[in-house]
Amino acid sequence: MYSAKDYDQALLTPESVFADPMEIVKTDSMTPEQKLAVLKRWEASATDLETAANESMTAAAVTNGSSRLRDVGKAILELTTRENVDQNNMVQVAATQT
Hints:
Elements: H1 4-12, H2 21-26, H3 32-56, H4 59-82, H5 87-97
């Protein structure tokens, strides 16, 4: 079971709390909206890593970033299907709050 402190840490660096994006989908310790927020953060981190790796052209980093991005994408799809969460609505809400 994850605590509020774990959730706060996962919002900063999801991979420091969860070994795999599907762990987020499967946990009962967060609301669907919290899960989506953490997955979206992980997606942004994986995208940044992939972009940086592509710019430096290091094959290992590109492979690691791509696999994480795919894993996060699968987890987001699973969450939105299972929990009936609209990821587009969540993104718009987050964008208007900043």
